[in-house]
Design a protein that fits this description.
It is a single chain. By secondary structure, the chain is an alpha+beta fold. It folds into 3 domains: 3-103; 108-262, GAF domain (Beta-Lactamase), CATH 3.30.450; 294-378, Response regulator (Rossmann fold). The chain has helices at 3-30, 46-58, 64-104, 111-125, 160-164, 174-182, 199-205, 238-292, 298-303, 306-312, 315-318, 321-330, 336-343, 347-361, 366-378, and strands at 130-137, 140-148, 168-169, 186-188, 210-217, 220-228. Helix 2 (46-58) packs antiparallel against helix 3 (64-104). The radius of gyration is 37 Å and the shape is elongated. It starts with a helix and ends with a helix.
């Protein structure tokens, strides 16, 4: 629990106690016509309490000795309502932050891994003990991953084996069809009695109530998330629905980013392969061209000293365009990895080119090739 959530919880306890004291004081004034609500429902009863007190005052139903106290209580009720609304807003912001962090924690994973990890992230950040993510493919609803908290692992409430092989036509699942078409979340308090639900999966899951939300990417529903609290008597409420919907929104953004990264990486690999293939063709063409040129006699070659032989090599004539390009980077001290990144080719291709450069220039090292390149450029 975060520090903000802890402070909100402490403040809630203080507000509840103040509200109960206010309600007891109201009961003394209104008598048997007013009942003090339970602590869980005290703030929900504030509006009705205020209306009853206001009615008693305006209609002259209170003795004069209670009028001042009733006015004080009305003001106090409004103050407590404002404080409760402020606390609820802080709590909602803390929850939203927690939901955002849970979805953001999936960043950096591959798109498939994000899908597999999402249900566990839902249960870790939200008050659910079971969550499922599904894909929407055309007219098919395809459950993909179910997560249950450890206390339900291996129990009848863990229907992972069923999910792994499930696939349903959306036409058979009216509620999920509404999620896809209307793009809004849903709260299902009684799945077994709701005619929109797919009874096959309701029976398999044994869910007494659940919430569901669409995953929307670029204006299209690409998946669904479902969540519940199995074994709990109290049904889920609209806040649960809204929490899951917030997660689905953040999740869609993280998933889109992962897919985009993968597409860019694939495109980069295709470009690198294309450049490599082009270099290979150019190198073959250059070799064929060199084969048509008159070659110096073996006697002339043997009469040259190694130093004279190296200085006599014409760099521009001996190397292909790509090899000259790579040599220019070698001359700056760049590594193979840096050259590969700059030219958008693989490091293995760079190594192959460097080998050919050293062989064509008849030099033993990269440094010697760089010196020859610099000397050639000064001529």
């Amino acid at each position: 629990m975060s520090r903000t959530e802890q402070s909100v919880e402490v403040r809630d306890e203080g507000l509840v106690q103040s509200a109960l004291e206010c309600m007891r004081a109201t009961a003394k004034i209104l008598g048997s016509d007013f009942r003090v609500p339970s602590p869980d429902a005290v703030f929900g009863a504030f509006a009705a309490t205020r209306d009853q007190l206001g009615h008693a005052l305006t209609e002259g139903l209170l003795p004069e000795s209670d009028i001042e106290e009733a006015c004080f209580l009305l003001v106090r009720i409004e103050e407590l309502q404002e404080q409760y609304a402020e606390t609820a807003a802080v709590r909602r912001a803390a929850e939203l932050r927690s939901v955002h962090d849970a979805a953001a924690g999936l960043r950096g994973l591959a798109s498939d891994d994000i899908i597999q990890s999402a249900p566990a992230a839902i249960c870790s950040a939200l008050p659910f003990a079971r969550a499922m993510i599904s894909a929407i493919s055309g007219s098919l609803w395809q459950p993909q991953r179910l997560h249950v908290e450890p206390e339900f692992d291996g129990s009848p409430l863990d229907f992972s084996d069923y999910v792994d092989h499930a696939e349903f036509p959306l036409s058979d699942a009216r509620l999920e069809t509404e999620l896809v078409r209307r793009r809004v979340p849903a709260l299902v308090p009684a799945p077994a009695h709701d005619e929109r639900t797919l009874k096959e999966i309701v029976l398999a899951s044994r869910s007494s109530s659940y919430v569901a939300a669409p995953i929307i990417s670029r204006g299209r529903v690409i998946g669904l998330v479902h969540a519940d609290r199995p074994g709990v008597r109290d049904p889920l409420d609209p806040d649960d629905r809204d929490r899951l919907d917030a997660f689905a929104t953040f999740f869609a953004l993280v998933y889109e980013q992962a897919v985009l990264r993968e597409r860019i990486s694939a495109q980069r690999s295709r470009l690198a392969a294309s450049f490599d293939a082009t270099d290979t063709v150019l190198d073959r063409m250059h070799r064929a061209e060199l084969g048509l040129r008159p070659q110096p006699s073996e006697q002339l070659r043997s009469s040259r000293s190694p130093g004279a032989e190296i200085s006599a090599v014409e760099v521009n004539a001996a190397l292909t365009f790509r090899e000259r390009e790579i040599l220019s980077h070698i001359a700056t001290g760049a590594t193979n990895s840096q050259i590969a990144q700059t030219l958008v080719i693989s490091e293995g291709t760079v190594k192959s080119h460097v080998k050919h450069i050293l062989k064509k220039l008849r030099v033993p090292t990269r440094a010697a090739a760089a010196v020859l390149y610099s000397h050639q450029n000064r001529r």
